[in-house]
Predict the structure.
Amino acid sequence: MKKILIINGPNLNQTGYREPNQYGVTTIDQINKNIIEFSRQKNICVEIFQSNCEGKIIDKIESTAKEIDGLIINPGAYTHYSFAIRDAIVASRVSTIEVHLSNIYNREEFRQKSVIAPVCKGQITGFGEKSYLLAIYALI
Ligand code: DQA
């Protein structure tokens, strides 16, 4: 069975409660349940990890790289400036897809640049919780 790791970065634990106009009203727990159900249907083993800390995200990528077939990452605000997470993705050599709940290209200028996307297979942005399911589908 193929294994996919999903990483959510800072503040994504607040999804469903924070800025619902941007990120929707579906709670992170419900989003995760939907991801697990979708993965089961597709015969994929999925692990979901969230941290507000850059170093913990990097540690997770490093410690699981050899065990996973694909990585889906929503780096939150780290998207726009974390060269450290970018380097960890490159070092891992794992096929990675960047996802966002909101469409980062129709928001503030500082959100319109991702330093992570250039080292990913692709980026899915703006489809709310469905962004994660589309990313799983893309990895499959
Ligand atoms: C986000 C977009 C980022 O700019 C923001 O900092 C987030 C969420 C998204 O999923 O739309 O925390 O990654």
User: Anything to note?
Assistant: The CA atoms of residues 6 and 48 lie 5 Å apart. Residues 2-105+131-135 form a domain with the Rossmann fold fold (CATH 3.40.50.9100). The longest strand covers residues 2-8.
